[in-house]
Hints:
homodimer, mainly alpha, three-stranded antiparallel beta sheet, 3 strands, disordered N terminus, DNA-binding
Amino acid sequence: MRRGRRTETLSLLEGALLGLLHAQPQSGYQLRKAFQETPLAHFSDSPGSIYPALARLRARGRIRGTVERAGTLRPRERFALTRDGELTLQTWLSEPVTRETVRHGTDEAMLRFAFLEGALGRRATTGFLRDLARELADYLEWLRAWHKARARAQTLTGRLALESGIASVDAQLRWAHRAARRMAAVEKAP
Amino acid sequence: MRRGRRTETLSLLEGALLGLLHAQPQSGYQLRKAFQETPLAHFSDSPGSIYPALARLRARGRIRGTVERAGTLRPRERFALTRDGELTLQTWLSEPVTRETVRHGTDEAMLRFAFLEGALGRRATTGFLRDLARELADYLEWLRAWHKARARAQTLTGRLALESGIASVDAQLRWAHRAARRMAAVEKAP
DNA sequence: GTACACATGTAACCGGTTACATGATTGC
DNA sequence: GCAATCATGTAACCGGTTACATGTGTAC
């Protein structure tokens, strides 16, 4: 959906593909199944989204495909990250967590977090969680202030919808704190 | 992002615009500000998204614009729903809440809910909340089962990310129950 | 022998993003 | 005088959706 001027920002789908391929080289079909069957849903599982995305990533040198069972009547192409793809993934995962990251929805942040350990190691997660918790707390405070100030001017369902958002952000913030504690505990006893 | 074959499904942005214009006829600039300043964030506030979307809706007869302060040097165009736009909005808001609705993220469901009272009245919300709660409960159960079954096979951050999703859905489900009770209470004493 | 899972694509459409463009008004 | 706000657009790009297309392997 967007393209950095020079830095080649990844779309969510491309990020997800790189992250999955980093964890485990696999075919387009297996990636489709992952989008169907795992909680990674919300990505389309249609071939029309995944195969072109893979072709793009390959054209840009992020991934490389090797054909398996070439002689047989049912070959398949297994994709893996190139060194360049690994760097791209790491760069994407390292982008700072800002106000915008949480304002536009936490999907991207959580997707990146899911891949953090695999691609950057456990140490990298501490800062991520700290920044995420900071921004979530700020955002939550702002949402609550907004709710307090404007609650009466809205319809009942409008108000309730806002409260749903507040409850969601609150849950994510609590989760971030729990997760940070878990990470700290694990770091002491690896 | 998509187009129903014949039924002219609305994009999220178009739905948001119709909902906002139904609540209060206003100009493109005011809509932009709404996306900047209210918790409706996550829609782009850039003129390049809103003005073309308004032009589309007008071309399809959903909205009508009237130029205000026409003689002055700073005119502006205030948009309002046509009768057809009202019907389109109502149809969109009436679409059933299914498994897919929650699997792909609850953004659309919550956006629609926010406009429900204004466009369909309080009575319409009861069924919506019931369906939403049902689907959220199913989805939550599925997520928990998945977590239990696959937790060990994942990286730590992968597991934590899943737990974040579970916490979020859980929070939304609790909210849905609270909201249903609030609606019921209000219906008795309108 | 037929339905379903495996496996990979292409092509048209279109909506959102980014960047560019223009000019008036208000407040300091 | 200059910056910020008001106000509205256009144009190129490109990625995701939908629909179409094709053929094999396996289990009943």
